[in-house]
UniProtKB/TrEMBL annotation:
It comes from Oreochromis niloticus (Nile tilapia). This is Kinetochore protein SPC25. Its main location: nucleus. The keyword Acyltransferase does not apply. It is found in: Chromosome, Centromere; Nucleus; Chromosome, Centromere, Kinetochore. It holds the Pfam family Spindle_Spc25. The gene is SPC25. The keyword Cell cycle applies. Acts as a component of the essential kinetochore-associated NDC80 complex, which is required for chromosome segregation and spindle checkpoint activity. Required for kinetochore integrity and the organization of stable microtubule binding sites in the outer plate of the kinetochore. The NDC80 complex synergistically enhances the affinity of the SKA1 complex for microtubules and may allow the NDC80 complex to track depolymerizing microtubules.
């Protein structure tokens, strides 16, 4: 057995220890290098993850702002749409009201046309009736003026109750004691086209009855004959 004090043995031991120490140092160095690489890789990963998160947060903020902008724009569009609907509703109501006014105007025009037609028919009827009455007056003039001394005068009523053209029938040869004495009855035509007695001088009590009979028959000669009889009868009382 060799002694440890042997220089050769001592050198080999020292060399072996140095070799072991160097291997351990290399192992530590490798571990440190690996750890440093891992740390660097981790820092890079963390930085990359942080950048990604920051970018994601920024994108999310932009997306949120975009969504808020869209929401506000949508609200404005809703308000504008509501206003347009209200305006359309008002326009439709106005159109419907104008249609109703149009129908009302058309009905009024039709009513006016009907009234005008009736008025025209009434005027034509009155005109025909007046022509007939004029003929009756002409006949009455021939009968009474030529044979009985009847005078027919045209007068114009000026009072509030008596307006328009009137006729006065002046009877003479009524009183035997005074043949020239005048007995007068004044007549006109009312709004309905019928004969109307305005007055008589002297007053005849039965004048209302005679007027009603005249309006029923339109027989003016017979009416004048009855009036003459009443005047004569009154002078004999």
């Amino acid at each position: 057995i060799m002694s440890i004090t042997d220089p050769n043995v001592s050198d080999r031991f020292t060399s072996a220890m140095e070799e072991i120490h160097n291997k351990e140092l290399k192992t530590y160095t490798d571990i440190i290098d690996t750890t440093a690489e891992l740390a660097q890789s981790h820092r890079q990963f963390v930085k990359s993850a942080l950048d990604t998160c920051l970018k994601k947060c920024k994108d999310d903020d932009i997306l949120f702002e975009t969504i808020q902008t869209f929401k506000k724009d949508l609200e404005r569009k809703k308000v504008a749409l509501k206003e347009k609907r209200q305006a359309i509703s008002e326009v439709i109501s106005e159109i419907q009201e104008k249609d109703m006014q149009k129908e009302d105007i058309i009905q009024k025009i039709e009513k006016l046309k009907e009234e005008q037609t009736k008025r025209k028919e009434l005027i034509e009827s009155q005109y025909r009736a007046n022509k007939d009455r004029l003929k009756n007056l002409q006949k009455a003039r021939l009968v009474f003026q030529d044979h009985l001394g009847l005078e027919i005068r045209t007068i114009l009523g000026k009072t509030q109750l008596v307006k328009g053209e009137k006729l006065q029938f002046v009877f003479r040869n009524i009183s035997p004691s005074d043949p020239d004495s005048a007995y007068v009855i004044t007549m006109g035509i009312n709004e309905s086209g019928s004969y109307q007695i305005v007055s008589s001088d002297p007053v005849l009590e039965c004048l209302t009855v005679l007027e009603k009979r005249l309006q029923e028959t339109n027989n003016l000669p017979a009416f004048l004959a009855n009036v003459r009889k009443e005047f004569i009868s009154q002078t004999r009382r």
